[in-house]
Design brief:
The chain contains 4 helices and no strands. It is mainly α. Helix 1 crosses helix 2.
């Protein structure tokens, strides 16, 4: 019998707009009677995106433009990377909270 893969626990930084969509998805899942958490909602959203691309074979032009715009927003990317770095630094120092002022 094959073993189930272990779940991977990660700390990640979510942009506030994405956080809103994740929370909306979470709310919808709960309203539909699912035993959902924030992680469940995020996994559902990722699975939907993966399945849609797999089914269609590519992203729509609008989606490509949105992703390109996001990746070209250097201020947002730098902020996300900084928060990610601070979270990893905090984990390295065994739970000592590292925050910026």
């Amino acid at each position: 019998m094959a073993q189930k893969p272990k779940l991977v626990k990660k700390t990640l930084i979510i942009h506030p707009i994405m956080d809103g969509y994740i929370r909306k998805t979470w709310s919808i899942l709960i309203d539909k009677g699912h035993d959902a958490t924030y992680s469940t909602a995020l996994n559902v959203m990722l699975l939907m995106a993966i399945m849609e691309v797999g089914e269609k074979g590519c992203l729509t032009e609008k989606t490509n433009e949105t992703i390109s715009g996001f990746l070209e927003d250097q201020e947002t990317i730098t902020r996300l990377n900084l928060e990610d770095y601070l979270a990893r630094l905090g984990e390295y120092y065994q739970g000592v909270a590292v925050t910026r002022r």
